[in-house]
Prior knowledge:
The chain has about 190 residues and is mainly alpha-helical. It has helices at about 20-45, 55-60, 60-80, 90-100, 105-115, 165, 170-180, 185-190; strands spanning about 120-130, 135-140, 150-155. It has two domains: about 20-80, Fe,Mn superoxide dismutase (SOD) domain (Helix Hairpins); about 90-190, Iron/manganese superoxide dismutase, C-terminal domain (minor pseudopilin epsh fold, 3-Layer(bab) Sandwich). About 50% of the residues lie in helices and about 10% in strands. The protein has a three-stranded antiparallel β-sheet, sandwiched between helices. Helix 1 runs antiparallel to helix 3 and helix 2 crosses helix 3. The radius of gyration is 16 Å and the shape is globular.
Amino acid sequence: MPIELTPLPYDRAALAPHLSAETLDYHHGKHQRAYVDRLNELIAGTEFAELMLEDIVRRAQGQLFNQAAQVWNHEFYWQCLRPRGGGEPGGKLGEKIVQAFGDFAHFRGEFDRLALATFGSGWVWLVQRADGQLAVVSTTNASTPLTGDDTPLLACDVWEHAYYIDYRNGRAQYLEAFWKLVNWDFVASRLR
């Protein structure tokens, strides 16, 4: 069963003015599609061909892992965004953020610090540890918390392709836009 390019959960122009339709066309329609196409080439005729994407990510290594993890990371990232998102989370998620970081401002500061410090290509994640505590972690290239004990809750793509069309080399400006799009309902739904 081939891996499909999952459609965006909103219209390609829905995240504007923070992320343009051109960025989504390139990032999802071209860049992520290339990962999906290459992944399907790599799994054709192998024991991975009938596995779900998450299972491929957890079992694969090398180039196969890189392609599968990038597909999964991107699909997760799109769920973390929504039109008219942002603000601060309430409920259990808001309480857990305060418990872990002191307040939302400290959480966001730590997240931004890691996002700006991630050299080259990578991801910044809000995760829930096995003990239930929240943490912010950075991964490089295709690495993902999915392969460890942490449950990914929120992802920010800090690969340059995520923001270059709209912000050029302005990762800090991209992060400002990111916080206006966060889908806290999705993030909260991931809590264990």
